[in-house]
Amino acid sequence: MGRDEREAVARGTRLHEAARSLAGDHERAVDAVRAALKPLHDEAVEQALDAIPVARLQDVTGGRLRLGAVEKSGLATVRAVLDAGPYRLRQIPGVGQRTVDQIVAAARQLAEAAGEAAAVHLDVDRPEPRTTALVAALHVLVGAGPEARRALDTAAGLVRRLDPLLAEARPAAGRIGLLLAGRERKARALEAVTGIRSLTEEAERDGTPELLAQASVDLLRGPAGDLAAWTDFELRSAEYYGVLGEIAGHTSDTAAAEGFLPDDIAERVRGLRLDDSRRRVSLRGYQAFGARFALARRRAILGDEMGLGKTIQAIAALAHLAAGGHTHFLVVCPASVLVNWTREIEARSTLPVRPLHGPDRRDAFADWGERGGVAVTTFDSLRGFPDPGGDAGGPPGGDPEGGGPDRPPAPAMLVVDEAHSVKNPQALRSQAVDRWAARCERVLFMTGTPMENRVAEFRNLVRMLDPEVADRLGDGTGLTGSVAFRRAVAPVYLRRNQEDVLTELPSLQHTDEWEELSAADEDAYREAVREGNFMAMRRAAYARPEKSAKLGRLREIVREAGENGLKVVVFSNFRDVLRVVEADLAAADGTEPRPYRPVFGPLTGAVPPARRQSLVDGFTAVTGPAVLLAQIQAAGIGLNMQAASVVIVCEPQIKPTIEHQAVARAHRMGQVRPVRVHRLLAAGGVDERMVRLLERKTRLFDAYARRSAVAEATPDAVDVSDTDLARRIVEEEQARLGVDDERTAPS
């Protein structure tokens, strides 16, 4: 006895020091952000106060102040009053000490409010030293990612548990401490040693020392190069703004962020703690609340406005359930977003994902039933699967029976994306979803379409989740306003709008929309590959519009944007693709008028410059949704499309700079609301090969540009030759598809 105790205390002390060290490393990274933020925030507050006239001080004091003499003295704004201070105010004729005290108190109150509301905008198009310093400081924390947050929470728990144990075990830390301790003190010390030993062994089994060490390494890397930090910011600005808002203490209005839910429901949702051990992405506060809502309510509709991350919230709910031992989950979505769901689940979580689509879907379905994971299927494919059976998707200790190829397990959660697609109870797809929903304990419907004025359709969706709530919904429920509507349907429905929850709007959000080509698309693509026609390969997805998978997804994005009152710019390199899009958007869909007209353009290189601006002006002048079609090189320079907040790029561009310049035309309105960029990509062909090659080239460019100011000034200097890239991709695709060359060189 003695040596073992000393070693146990030493191990506990090392673990304790590692935990405290990580907390210190994190605090230093946070302090660096605060230091970089302060001058920018102070400037934003000063600008806000400069814009507030002195007369507004009356609002704060209920109209009790006499401000005529102050205004006549030349102090026209609240900032001028604060800069003048009590002494100068007291020198103004007719202004007494009591009035001075009231004026100063009111001005400080407005200054405090301005400080809470002031948001710093990081403009990637106009970087300057102060914003660059802030982005670089944020890059450290964003780069450390959710693993660092998990490590910090673990470290805090260890410090909290080890502090009293190490204090109590102090006599056992030295060679003679236990000998000199009294019987009672010795007993407490030995008991504490036992607790330390148990705690350190548990931590070592869980890999906690490695987790803490890796987090410290990530936080100590130091700021990245300016270009690398800005590039990363552009790719995931939402995460940067999330970290910035958390450090700055900016929080959205709680009632709005919680969808104006009644207090009793909101309180139950807040009480649920999310397990993030199976998740790879951090959540904004409103996103965490949305995931908890889905879990707490069990059968619910998430109706957030497009761009707020409904997919991430659903994945967070699935990851939480998986961490609790649940094994089977099912996502049902339109075919156009199946690939996207698959990739998002893989990128954002550690959950195994299994697409149930295509000719092998029945075999994949049986495999999912046996092995579990997140199955992702389409509305049409779901109709061909047998209805679920028992509770094989439940946690350990539940009923393991009821699964199998003929009787699949009931998923622990059924997620239905674009749920407005099953609003008609007579449709076969709606009936299939209804049957599955009836057998699942947890169901999450997702739709970005506002439902306030579609009560009959909404009632059909709610009936699948909670018939009692559906029966309470009258046809006039939505007429009382969106907030009242949300309160009426609070037991099943959560919707937040961007202006409600994003106190610091992400300036840019990129989404790669991966689509599976239809059979007609595949035929057109194979023909282009056989001919060795690179340009035809790039636009083959639009060659047969009536069966085009990309065009279907484009239509969905434009429809949802129109439903939310947003303007859309559609870019393509090809004039004939824009003509196809124009014809499709102008056509009636056979059931109801489309909400996203008028359509402006196409704006192409053949359109004179004056006419181009006229098209943009007309697009901007429209009140409500509209669509502008533009050839990407013609619209990429010289035109500002600030009215647009949704950008669709029909195919990947050979030079990323072309796409960046075009997006920047709309990106300028990021100061008001985020610009969302959807790049339409086809899986398995030229698009995937282009993306992979261009990503590799971008990494090489970043490494090169950090060593060369000239390269930063001229990014096209390292662009891969268009001809070389085209030839390489054509040859690879001909080999993959086993077709013969019909041309000696790609077109």
Automatic annotation (TrEMBL):
CDD domains: DEXHc_Snf (cd17919), SF2_C_SNF (cd18793). Residues 553-726 form the Helicase C-terminal domain. The keyword Calcium does not apply. Residues 291-468 form the Helicase ATP-binding domain. Its EC number is 3.6.4.-. Residues 390-405 have a biased composition (Gly residues). Residues 379-410 are annotated as: Disordered. The lineage of its organism: Bacteria, Bacillati, Actinomycetota, Actinomycetes, Kitasatosporales. SUPFAM superfamilies: P-loop containing nucleoside triphosphate hydrolases. Keywords: ATP-binding, Helicase, Hydrolase, Nucleotide-binding. It comes from the Bacteria. This is DEAD/DEAH box helicase. Pfam families: Helicase_C, SNF2-rel_dom. It is an enzyme of class 3 (hydrolase). One of its GO terms (molecular function) is helicase activity.
